[in-house]
């Protein structure tokens, strides 16, 4: 019955759609044979397929041959998974880890970690704003705002050079009120591919410490920059310097386990007692949201991370994915240079790292790429390099050139 009295929710407006996920839907509905998805941050192999990593297959097969009961996990997640997260991010021997100064939760992907962290910060620092890089992953804005924090930006990307506005970034961060939250990308910055060098991180750390700022580091692409350990340089340097900070890590990309929703939230605290209290309140946040995390993906990942042989396999698999991303950067760079003959500088493709590059293409050009050439980028001009293959890279280069010239 739809009488006026029973018509509820008529004031609910339609959803405009997510700027990234909605592109996946349009791409899937596109019937053109030469379509290329360079939008969502997902790693594809050179055949354009989502890989099933052999280390994951092996761990999962072993689990399936030993199917057991499925109790609720603890609110904070599996202990073996949580300690593996700490080892992967900071190293098993790091004093913060051995000293019991890291509160780690198993979370629903990197997104779940960001959300639980944002809720926690809003509760204990209700006056604090969060400062994110200009630009950042679109969903950072939505998540922090959704948790009640005011979101502001600090300078980051320089469109003129395709590099970093490091001095302007530091200058801005120096002006922030104490206890401001500063969202940082540990490696493979999304959407620009522009990272701080190790020396720049070392320069940033005193600014964070002396300003009494609360760093929140997002690491969603560990292994896709320079290496599994190399990509944690910022985390380890911050912990070495005695900073207290939050880390949201994701296993979606580096395990190619997007749908299993596996990640972690780690809070590096001043001492063991504070860590226990923080972990307790994080658990309270989770309990009031979704109660406890799921088992399957975490079991698989925990097995890979805690078994020496599987870990070595996975390390090699991440190196292979990283190598392919780099090779595709070089091939697109070479293909564009062959067309442009010096008319446009596309060296940003080589200096930027990780899955993404910022092309500088405007909304109209991105729309032309999609409508005229079936090449999908995010509206901001972000190109996901891992959607390129040796088969489609020439087509993409010709399409980019067609909309740029
Ligand atoms: N942090 C960053 C920086 C990030 O790019 C993503 C996903 C996440 C966190 C979320 O990770 P997950 O484990 O899936 O919750 N980014 C890609 C996918 C998306 O938008 O959801 C992307 O930017 O395309």
Give an overview of the whole structure.
This protein has 405 residues and is an alpha/beta fold. Helices cover 44% and strands 14% of the residues. The protein contains 15 helices and 13 strands. α9 links the parallel β8 (214-219) and β9. It binds ligand KET. Ligand KET binds at residues 20, 40-41, 109-111, 137, 139, 190, 218, 220, 250, 252, 263. Ligand KET binds next to α5.
What is the N-to-C succession of helices and strands?
HEHHHEHEHEEEHEHEHEEHHHHEHEEH
Shape: globular
How large, in whole angstroms, is the Cα Rg?
22 Å
- How many helical stretches? 15
Bound molecules: ligand KET
Largest sheet: 7 strands, mixed
CA-CA gap between termini: 58 Å
The strands making up the biggest β-sheet line up spatially as 2-10-9-8-7-3-4
Structural class, from helix and strand content? alpha/beta
DSSP strand content: 5-15%
Helix content: 40-55%
Tally of strands:
13
- The overall pLDDT, averaged over residues, is 96
- The low-pLDDT segments are none
How is this structure best summarized?
The protein is an alpha/beta fold and 405 residues long.
Give me the secondary-structure topology:
Layout: H1 21-29, E1 36-37, H2 54-64, H3 79-90, H4 95-98, E2 102-108, H5 109-124, E3 130-134, H6 138-146, E4 151-155, E5 157-158, E6 163-164, H7 166-174, E7 181-185, H8 198-210, E8 214-219, H9 233-240, E9 245-250, E10 262-268, H10 272-289, H11 296-306, H12 308-340, H13 348-351, E11 356-358, H14 363-373, E12 375-376, E13 382-384, H15 393-404
Parallel strand pairs: 1-12, 3-4, 3-7, 7-8, 8-9
Antiparallel strand pairs: 2-10, 5-6, 9-10, 11-13
Helix pairs in contact: 2-11, 2-12, 3-11, 5-10, 7-8, 8-9, 11-12, 12-15, 14-15
């Amino acid at each position: 019955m739809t009488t006026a009295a029973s018509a509820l929710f008529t004031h609910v407006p339609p959803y405009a759609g997510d700027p990234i996920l909605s592109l996946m839907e349009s791409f899937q509905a596109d019937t053109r044979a030469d379509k290329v998805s360079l939008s969502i941050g997902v790693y594809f192999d050179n055949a354009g397929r989502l890989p099933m990593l052999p280390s994951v297959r092996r761990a999962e097969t072993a689990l399936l041959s030993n199917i057991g009961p499925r109790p609720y996990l603890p609110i904070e997640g599996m202990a073996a998974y949580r300690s593996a997260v700490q080892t992967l991010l900071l190293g098993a021997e790091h004093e913060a880890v051995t000293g019991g100064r890291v509160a780690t939760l198993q979370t629903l992907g990197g997104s779940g970690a960001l959300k639980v962290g944002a809720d926690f910060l809003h509760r204990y620092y209700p006056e604090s704003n969060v400062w994110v890089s200009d630009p950042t992953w679109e969903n950072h804005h939505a998540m922090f705002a959704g948790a009640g924090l005011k979101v502001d930006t600090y300078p980051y990307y320089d469109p003129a050079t395709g590099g970093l506005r490091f001095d302007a970034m530091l200058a801005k961060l120096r002006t922030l009120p104490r206890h401001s939250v500063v969202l940082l990308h540990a490696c493979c910055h999304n959407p620009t591919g522009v990272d701080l060098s190790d020396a720049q991180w070392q320069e940033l750390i005193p600014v964070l410490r002396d300003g009494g700022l609360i760093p929140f580091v997002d690491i969603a692409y560990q292994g896709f920059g320079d290496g599994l350990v190399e990509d944690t340089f910022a985390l380890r340097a911050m912990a070495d310097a005695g900073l207290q900070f939050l880390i949201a890590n994701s296993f979606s990309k580096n395990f190619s386990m997007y749908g299993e929703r596996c990640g972690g939230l780690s809070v590096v605290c001043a001492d063991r007692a504070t860590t226990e209290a923080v972990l307790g309140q994080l658990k309270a946040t989770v309990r009031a949201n979704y109660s406890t995390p799921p088992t399957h993906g975490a079991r698989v990942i925990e097995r890979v991370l805690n078994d020496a042989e599987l870990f070595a396999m996975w390390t090699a698999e991440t190196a292979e994915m990283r190598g392919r991303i780099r090779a595709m950067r070089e091939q697109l760079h070479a293909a564009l240079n062959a067309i442009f003959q010096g008319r446009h500088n596309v060296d940003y493709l080589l200096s930027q790292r990780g899955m993404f590059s910022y092309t500088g293409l405007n909304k109209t050009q991105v729309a032309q790429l999609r409508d005229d050439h079936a090449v999908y980028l995010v509206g901001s001009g972000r190109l996901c390099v891992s959607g390129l293959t040796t088969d489609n890279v020439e087509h993409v280069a010709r399409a980019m050139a067609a909309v740029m010239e």
